[in-house]
Amino acid sequence: MATIRPTIIHSKTLKDGRIKIQVAIAHNNQTRYLTTDIAIDSPKEFKNGTIVKRADASYLNTKLRKIVQQYQEAFDEVPGAEGMTCTDLIEYIRKTGSKKCITLQAVFDEYIALSDISDGTKRTYGIAFATLSKCISPNTILENLTPSAILALDKKLREYKRRNCKLGPAAIRNYMTTLSLLVKYAVRCGYVSYKIDPFASYTPPKKPIRDSWLTIEEIRKIRDCKPRLASVALCRDFFMLSYYLGGINLVDLLQIDFTNMSRIKYSRQKVSRKTDSKVEFSIPDEAKPIIKKYKARNGKLNAQVGIYSLTHDFCFTHMPLLAEEAGIGKKVIYYSARKSFAQHALELKVETPIIDYILGHSLGAAKGILYHYIVVTPKMATEAVRKVLDNLLGDVKNNP
């Protein structure tokens, strides 16, 4: 029979000096440790398996006893436990998804392994879970998630700093949405049940509107600037290529085979698993020199200059430099090309279904009943892109 007791490991301290309470599992001459989400300020606050000298000691001890009891009940239910090693016993509990002690980490690992989601989405969830794990232990027992725990986590996320910057409302909203997704998955699988939904009292931060579009004059400034650094020039070229190709996202742009320089045809990766709709239109003349400049032998774009490779992190650091070179006194991000194209198309009275088509949005019932009756054609998209780019060329056309 497994022996379970709370303990602390003096050598394992958090960056702020606090110590997480561990649950020691002793079985068949082996001892393994599972981390709880309970932390104390110093070893003096823990004595003989009990939290002492704290105003909240009574509450934390009740919580700790519940955790130990849940583990004990779960292990007692395992068939053939006496013949297992301690490691096997813990792994069995994780794999069988016992309601008594399934952890956030176990649910996340299972969801990523079994869900029909793209690799890109898996990476996004992985980033979100890694950040969540900085503020709540991945070994937290799912059954112990309460409305107060969710509110406390939200507070920690608001105070958490990444790259010396606090997380924005959009990031916090995305991370909490990821946690909510895992909780709902565990409930559907029967791994856990709640009398009160942990998110019942939680209101996520409002989704901010990305007011990052640029005026025609500002797009022209970027187009015409002469960056001193090759890395900034790389950023400028791909920013303008995105605008020329209807606001295409970087992840989609780098996957396109440009062997055929006359037309572009692709499915936006973000919605490709939900719909088979494709974006197709003629490649405008403005885009062709940039494509030719960076096109590799396999037809795809080689977005690298020397040691620099075009990634989202690269754009995050170099777009402000591009804005400075172009003399634009406001925030510019790579997404600004997409946002600006859509804004300029709308101002030119391009029909919204055509804008949706060019941007690669999923078209269906969610967009309204109209989309059951109309079809946007590549010809319509080509004409719309040309209309936006002719507007950009206005300064040239009016001053030959």
**The CATH topology of the largest domain:** hpI Integrase, Chain A
Number of helices: 15
- The class by helix and strand makeup works out as mainly alpha
Cα-atom Rg, whole angstroms? 27 Å
Order of helices and strands: EEEEEHHHHHEEHHHHEEHEEHHHHH
Q: In words, what does this structure look like?
A:
- This protein is mainly alpha-helical.
- The chain has 3 domains: 3-96, no CATH class; 104-188; 232-397, hpI Integrase, Chain A (Orthogonal Bundle).
- It is 46% helix and 11% strand.
- The strands form 5 sheets. It has a 3-stranded antiparallel β-sheet, with helices on one face.
- A hairpin with a 2-residue loop joins strand 10 (304-305) and strand 11 (308-309).
- Helix 8 crosses helix 11.
- It is elongated and about 80 Å long.
- The protein starts with a strand and ends with a helix.
- Mean pLDDT is 86; it is low at 395-400.
Chain-wise SSE layout:
Layout lengths: L2 E5 L11 E9 L2 E11 L5 E2 L2 E2 L5 H20 L9 H11 L7 H11 L4 H17 L11 H13 L1 E2 L2 E2 L2 H20 L27 H9 L5 H15 L5 H4 L9 E4 L12 E4 L5 H7 L9 E2 L2 E2 L2 H15 L8 H13 L4 H8 L18 H15 L1 H4 L3
Antiparallel strand pairs: 1-2, 2-3, 4-5, 6-7, 8-9, 10-11
Structure summary:
The chain is mainly alpha-helical and 400 residues long.
Note the main attributes of this structure.
single chain; 400 residues; mainly alpha; hpI Integrase, Chain A; 3-stranded antiparallel beta sheet; two-stranded antiparallel ribbon; 11% strand; disordered C terminus
